[in-house]
């Protein structure tokens, strides 16, 4: 099984405030209210890496197998997706939804068919699959918010915002 980073899918900014230490107050480019900028991106195709709080469920901060010691993560990816299926699931939950992307164990591609996901990962301990049909897999843009400036670590469906730094913008960070 290919381990993917866990993402905590939140229903609202209140969930993000509960499960993380929040968004940074400003950045080196003079943006003083990153939270206001982020609010314009969510719900949407972005995952923001933030420092985890103690309220985050342990499943989000531990990784490894049952036979090995769990390693602890200090950060967690948080999302508020604009996907209607995900939004419907979140409406029924009291807390965040913990998820990961599903890649094929033999190929470097995403598994899009829920029946194949169940067949491949059911024996590995998969709890359930929501069958919403075959879906388009457009990965989110992942932005690391744990450093001095928000840095895109994976460009996905969400466009680069002016306050984000792409990997090829390194000279802009070191001023």
UniProtKB/TrEMBL annotation:
Domain YrdC-like, residue spans: 1-158
Pfam families from the UniProt entry: Sua5_yciO_yrdC
Record-linked InterPro entries: DHBP_synth_RibB-like_a/b_dom, Sua5-like_dom, SUA5_domain
GO molecular function: double-stranded RNA binding
Bias (Acidic residues): 166-175
Domain of life assignment: Eukaryota
Region (Disordered): 155-175
Signal peptide stretch: none
The protein's name in its UniProt record: Threonylcarbamoyl-AMP synthase
Originating organism: Solanum commersonii
